Amino acid sequence: VQLQASGGxxxxxxxxxxxxxxxxxxxxxxxxxxxxxxxxxxxxEFVAAVSWSGGSTYYTDSVKGRFTIxxxxxxxxxxxxxxxxKPEDTAVYYCAARAGPIVVVDLSLYAYxxxxxxxxxxx
Length: 123
What we know:
It is built from no helices and 11 strands. The protein is mainly beta.
């Protein structure tokens, strides 16, 4: 599966952005989808993940209540709605896909990655 992330940009603290990740292929609904981010000088980290159906979602503690992951299997797209953005959310955001039903946060278990989209939050 090939992934194409978009929607990044520059936003002031407290603002919102919605990231999208479009996937190729006919089996999108059989992939767990995740969002990860990498800030300058830091390791890539888990942000959010969603199950096949979209019925189960998982978030890292720092984004709970502010970010929402969702997916539209008819459009082969996963979204990350980001509200109440903070300067510490500044990073390159990557979408990733993992075959199979088990949702995991370990980035090494995701086989497919998009190219990343930069989110910059100014204070």
